[in-house]
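pls ignore typos typing on phone
NAP + seq
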Amino acid sequence: MKALMMTKYGDALSSLEVQEVSTPKVGDNQILIKVHSASFNPFDYKLLRGDFKAMGKIQFPEGIGKDVSGVVEKVGKKVKTFKAGDKVYSRIDESFAGTMAEYVISNASDSANIPSNLSHEESAGVPLAGLTAYQALTDVVKLSKGERILIHAGSGGVGTFAIQFAKHLGAKVTTTTSTKNIELVKKLGADKVIDYTKENYLDEENKFDVVFDTLGGNHTLDSFKVLKDGGRLVSIAGVIDSITAKQFGLNKFVSLILAFQARKVLKAASKIGASYRFLFMSSSGSQLKELAKLYESGSIKMIVDKAYIFGDSIKALDYLSKGHAKGKVIVNIIK
Ligand SMILES: NC(=O)c1ccc[n+]([C@@H]2O[C@H](COP(=O)([O-])OP(=O)(O)OC[C@H]3O[C@@H](n4cnc5c(N)ncnc54)[C@H](OP(=O)(O)O)[C@@H]3O)[C@@H](O)[C@H]2O)c1
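k done
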């Protein structure tokens, strides 16, 4: 089968190529998916760039892509939940090779039927970014009705989900984006938009119960300035906390470096009695089922920025890596 492969550390244009590789074999608790569409996430260009070397080096050539929507081709001996022909989507497990391929393996437990009102192209954009926003707002900060939340980068892959979930949960949403995306984030339900090219969110007078930091860098530490005493800050791009270090099984040396990097953030949190959590999202078929219900009930909508053909998948990752996607970037393996 054909698969887009990472050939060395670098950027999309220099380090990816389509190669002929063998079709993966399905294990007892797994399904083999004939890929219709796949989507890229910033994780993919960061992995290719070598940002996660401390957590393990890549054995090149290696597949790329975590999100898939397609049709079950074959099921493992112990799989009772799916049959050949089912339309499924998944954020595949860390240990499997990429979704930018004609076929991919996923654990049955990491997969779910796609929302009945979405195409494969739309469904492929959901798993990683959708689960991230869902896990951040429900599992980590447990956002509740009437609370005020600041969502950084509301126009991005994760932000477009987060605004909609937060509204679905009954929260009051403020988000940051640039001028060209103001209409988009308003349509998704944002109550207040801060155009970061003209205004500074740090000037906000009313403090927030919750901040969802999708940007990292200075934004993580600065966000405590607009957080209420006792508030909750969840980050997916800032410094890693001890819970996540354990989740990765990082060695003591790496954990110590991370703890050193996190000390300012933890100090800022403790000064106002706030909580800080870094979330590294995880695959979940049962949460994908919950998301499917939200699409089917019309509570949330899928925002696709651009869809590319397989032959242009390198261009798709190059586009995403510029950091200005509006919603999700999809690659249609079958068109
Ligand atoms: N820890 C985890 O499990 C996890 C999971 C998913 C994602 N992530 C990380 O979370 C981050 C966001 O992911 P994503 O998929 O949403 O990325 P993305 O789709 O590439 O985000 C692009 C969006 O960010 C906006 N943006 C850029 N700079 C901004 C700024 N200074 N202020 C406000 N908005 C800004 C852009 O809007 P403009 O064009 O208007 O600038 C664009 O719409 C990435 O770093 C990713 O690696 C982590």
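The chain has a mean pLDDT of 96. The two ends are 16 Å apart (CA to CA). more later
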